[in-house]
Structure formats: C-alpha cells, structure tokens
C-alpha cells in the first residue's frame, strides 16, 4: 500500500514535471532587451552628421580661448533630433586647438536631467589634431573592446557649426554613469578620471603619503561622488604597490585591483604601440578607474588613444618596462612583472592581440576558422580590414577638412603607416614573445 | 559655543570703546562752552561726541571711526560661508566743511580691495541747488541710500543690495525746494555703481540718475501724522557692453541663485519708494525694476527679450522705549546714564526675481535663453536693535530665505535656509 502510494506520488510528480517542461517549452521566449536608443548615434557603419548652432561670437570666443573650459550655450542637431539648452566647451589636453577645437557637448549642463536619446548626458567630439590619420582613437578602442575591456563607442562625424562645415570629428562616448550602466550594469561606484597635464609632475604610482587628498582630486579626479571622492582606497592601493612585501603583494593587491586584468590592459596597450598610456613615455596617463559599488576593487577603462600606433610596428614589448631607469618605471608594472604568472598574462595578451589583429575577418561565406599569422595581402587581418574600411569611409571628408593641422599628403602617409603597422605588428610581437619564452 | 565666546569678547571690546568715549564726552559741555567762546580763536581740538578740529567757521574736520562685527550662524549648516565671527566693516574717515560753503567727506575701508567709500565735495552756496562731485552713492533706492550704520536690519533688502547701483564717481545736483516738501537729486556717473561691477563685469558705462522725494501731504497739512509720509521716484539709465554683464542674484549665504546672462544695450532702472516715520514707528516700502537689453544675443545673433530683474520689500519698526524714529534714533536714557538704551523691533519681507518674461518660449537656464528660467527668493527678516548709547548699537536678526528654483539654491534640492546674525556696531 505504502509502495503503491509512493509509486502513485512518483507518477504524479513526473506528470507535473512533464507538464511544467511542456509549458516551459510552449511559453514565449524571454523578452529581448529594449533596443539601445543610442545605437544609431554610435553606428560606425556610417558617417554621422552633427550640427551645432550657437552665437557666432561664442564660437569665435571658444576658438580664441580654446585653453579655457568656459561653456557656451548651443543647440545640437542629429538627424531629426534637436536639443536646445545644451552647453559646449573646448576640451582636450595636447589636442586643444583654436582652429579645430575639440568639444565636449554637455546635454545637461544648463538643464539638469536633460538627456540625448534618453540616455546620454554628454558626448565628446574629438578633433583628432594629434593624429594625421584620424583613425588611431577609433581603431584602438575597437581592439580594446574586442579584448574585453569596457571601451567607449566611437563613430566618425561631419561637424557643422552654424551650417558651415567645421571638419571631420570622432564622436566619443563619455565615460560617465550611462556608460557604466551600459557596460557594468551599475553606476554608483566611484569613478575617477586620471587627470594629467603638462605642468604636472610625472607620476608612476609613487606613494605620496597617507592623506587621501594627495591622490584626489589630483591626479585621480572624481567623475562621480564629486563632493565625497573617498580616495582612501586609492591611497591604500598605492601604499601596497610601494610597500607590500613580495609575499603579500598579489594577495593584498587583489583587494584593490585584478592584477591579471591590469596585465591584460597593458598588454593590449603595448600591442597597439601606445606611447601615452599606462606605461606611457610621460608617465601614466589616459585612463579612468572605476571602484565597484560596495567594494574597494577597481577596474580600468581606457581613454584617449590618439597616441596608439605611434610606437610603430617594431615597438618593443618591453617598452618602459625594463628599458628605462627604475625611478621612471610604472611602480605597479614594475612589481607585477616579477611574478611569473602575471608576466605570462602579459605575454599571452600580446599573443592574443596579435592573433586577433592578424586574423582575417570571417564572413558568412567564409566561416571556417583561420589561423593565419603572417600578413597576407590577399587575405588581410582584422586590423588591416578595419583600417581600410575606415579609410574608405572618411577619405573624402578628411581631405575636405581644411581645419585639420595636417596636409592631405600627411593624411595619406599616416594611412600608409597604419597599414604597415597592421601588416607587421603581429609578426613582430609574436617573434618577441617567442624569443623571450625560449 | 565659539560664537558665544567670541560674541562676548567682542561685546566687551565694543563696550570698552564707548567707555573711553564717555570719559572724553564728560568734557563735552566744557568743550562746547569753550567752542562758543573761542570760535574765532584759531585751530582747536573739540570733542563733541567725536573728535574734531575746528577753526571757527572756516574749517571743521570730524574724525570718524565705524566698526561692525558680525557673528553668523546658518541652518542647515553651511559649507561655503562658514559659521564665523567677521569684521563686516572697519572704516575710518574725516568729514566736515570749510569756507562755509563746502562740505566734504573722505571714508576708507581698512581693506586692500576697493577701500574707498565716500570721497566727495559738496558745494552748498545755494541751499536749493547744491553741487556734489566725487565718489558717492548714485541716487537710487531708499534702502541703498540709507547709511549702513543706520539701517534697521543687518542686511539690506535684496533689491537694495543687488539692483540699486551703490557708489560711483560722478557729479550731482541736489537740493530741497517747496518748503522742503520736495527734494531732488540728479547726476551723471562714470558707471552704474559698485553693485553692478564684480568679477569681469564692468557694469554699465556712463549713467544718468535722478531721484525725487516728495512729502505731498505736508503741503496740505503739517499737523497730520501723515504729513511726513514720503514718496519717491528714481531712475537710472546707461548702456551695458556686450558680455555676461547682467546684475546677479546672490543669497545671504553668498551663493549665486540667478544664472549668468549675456546682455548688451540699455540698462534702465526704475524705482518707487515710500517712507513714513511717525513717532517711534516706521514703515518703508520700495519697488525696483531693472531691464537690460539683449541685442544680438540669441543663438542666431538675434535680439532677445529684455532681462528683467525686479523686487520689492515692505518693512516696519517700532521703538518700544518710545524714542522718535525720524532723523536717527538717539537713546533718551543710554546705558550707564540712568537707563538701558533704546530698544527697537523690526520686521521685513522682501522679494527679488530674475527672468525675461517671454512666456511663449520654453524656459531655459542658459545665458542666451529666449525665455530665461526665472528664479528668485523671498526673505522674512525679524530683528531687535538695541541702541546702547550714542555710539553703540547691537542688532540681532533672523532671516529665512525661500528660493523658487531649488536647483539653484545654496544647497540644490533644498528651498529654505535660515541665517542668524548678531552685529556689534561702534560709530564714532
């Protein structure tokens, strides 16, 4: 009787489960996430067109006082969307220009809460005055994104100011709360922009003392929680970088930074021939650091890649690691590279980036995996393909851009240099890594 | 606690000063007698409530000292203007007359920035038509023209502080006619006053200003309590150069609550005022409106509607110890002289507002907006003034500011703020 009861119960349970499974199979699939309203604006398959309308005296003043961060009121138009009551200002560091100003467009500067395409608080219109090809920034960010880093989306744009063509610009997604939400699913942590300018003492993660104010707002400028930047974890991290014993270094650092992720970051930067990044020639530069909500752990977000590729295809994989005096080295890299497993992450990243850049782009017709490592003009790798695609996209309007600080010949030469980089860099890097490992 | 301690220290210091003055003033009567005897006996030092040099009718030099120290307390706790004890004013100066027909005043703040206050010469050969030249207050706004040491409240009304011009360099004709039933002031000034110039803002250029004050009922009857009711009208006009040169809204907390606005063209101020001081009471009221043209200031270089800055106040005081208000309060029984001084209570409500009055357009906060998003504030002020003696006044004021746009208040998101101030004043 008991067995029969149990057996009946088992059958009933099976039926319930079967029914549940059938119901699940019949139920509609989980709803897809709503379409990204900003996707069209960052669609890099097309050249975007942005129109700014502002008082002509303001445009003159902005160009005259291009070193100033003064905001000017403006009207912003993209496609059929027009936003009024927005602010623009000159931006940049070495890229600042009075002829072709880099611009920061703040949709909420005068109207708190105003958003473009319901999401964006601001956007950068990069003038590319430090890059004759105008492609460094976009190419580098694209590779960083492919390598798994949260990188800003970018697209080329023709900029018109008061209905007059003002040049070819790159639209760059701002690193801010909407960016964090889109990439990390959270935005209430502490975001810092690494703030370095020419007058600053070069910084390599030296320990400056226990006062958090020695680290923020300079050089770690708070981009969120501006009134309470809470730089204590930064101070603690830098103290560990400088003072932790070799036995403790990795364990204690893991509370503040994923060292493998850090090695991956510098690996990609090195592959890209970056001279103004984490291991830059002018000390550390061009990144954001985001400390995750309710945590002391931070992650790195790349910024400003105008100096990518400038190291050339033969850029040493040990550039600014072993080939400079100890006092000029990035303290964090100097410590991390001494651990074999972390060094391996760095070298593996170089190989992975080299593979990715040289691997031919798969099309639907040619979906078979390819492992081409040497440059093949008939079958170009991803990086070369992307360079060619972008070049075709911008060539005419870049040449028509009379505000760029380069001649058209220099633009063409920079394109050729990029092609050379794409064709030679992967092979060079692989050789160097293999040589070291042998 | 710190404020209380420092308040008591300051009070002690400020009370010691009048004690010293009182000691000198004991000789007052003898000095006056000597003065009468020796009016033509050459240069003499006289102490008549303040030190003075006299040479008969030929020369008079009075030495002036004006000190004000404020203890401040903010609620909610303020970040910007920290709770503190500050010297609001430390002024020294001379004033007097010479050759019977010339009056002068030279007054300097003991600070490095903009130290000069009143520096002028007045020619009064004809009492009905006097000529004044130098640096002095542009004739506009009863509240602004009332001396800082004689104000009923520690802070002037917002319109008196922010919209009225204040001092500038110029020449002015003034006088009283119709049996003192009508007084007038009219002049030309280099700019439109210190209150209009701050930061890189140059204010208006050459400015014409005029003010008349009438006591209409005095012409009808001198016995009615309403005979002293004064009504005034004032105007200024000048051109403001192109730029972010608008007048500004600043809170008691010293934070901006009006947005920067590009202006260019004519700045026109108009003001109406009422003043009535029957016996121990007073009632004052004033309305001020300032319009600034915004020629070619639109995004398309088009003309924009004028920026309008306007406001009003009404205030009332009562001297509970019974002294008369008109002509300045003089305690009938000063402290240490068989009394406790004069006590006055005062209340005021004032409002100020900035906008462009173009309701057809969406309000915006940018400096080239067609319709400038308005912002303003209303302030309730209540206070007690203790006139300890001829030289010392202690004021206690509480003010509640309420902002229309909470995003532009001293602490965005919050509308109401309290400020409590105690002021110790010594004037020689």
Keywords, please?
heterodimer; A: 438 residues; alpha+beta; seven-stranded mixed β-barrel; four-stranded antiparallel sheet; globular; disordered N terminus; B: 428 residues; mainly beta; 16-stranded antiparallel barrel; two-stranded parallel sheet; 11% helix
Fold and architecture overview:
The complex is a heterodimer of chains A (438) and B (428). Chain A has 438 residues and is an alpha+beta fold. In chain A, helix 7 packs across helix 9 (340-358). Chain A starts with a helix and ends with a helix. In chain A, a hairpin with a 6-residue loop joins strand 10 (287-291) and strand 11 (298-302). Mean pLDDT of chain A is 91; it is low at 1-25 and 367-373. Chain A has a seven-stranded mixed barrel with strand order 1-2-3-4-5-7-6. In chain A, strands 9-8-10-11 form a four-stranded antiparallel sheet. Chain A has a domain at 48-177. Chain A has helices at 2-26, 56-64, 136-146, 177-184, 232-243, 246-253, 259-271, 331-336, 340-358, 382-399, 408-437, and strands spanning 48-53, 72-78, 81-90, 103-106, 122-126, 154-161, 164-173, 190-194, 220-222, 287-291, 298-302. Chain B has helices at residues 2-25, 28-37, 142-145, 158-163, 216-220; strands at 44-47, 51-55, 59-75, 85-98, 102-109, 116-123, 130-137, 167-177, 182-189, 207-214, 230-243, 263-276, 281-294, 304-319, 342-355, 363-364, 371-372, 375-387, 392-403, 416-427. Chain B is globular and about 75 Å long. In chain B, 11% of the residues lie in helices and 48% in strands. The model of chain B has no long low-confidence stretch (mean pLDDT 89). In chain B, strands 3-4-5-6-7-8-9-10-11-12-13-14-15-18-19-20 form a 16-stranded antiparallel barrel. Chain B has five helices and 20 strands. In chain B, strand 1 and strand 2 (51-55) form a beta hairpin. With 428 residues, chain B is mainly beta. The longest helix of chain B is centred in the first third of the chain and has 24 residues, at 2-25. Chains A and B meet through helix 2, strand 2 and strand 3 of A and loops of B.
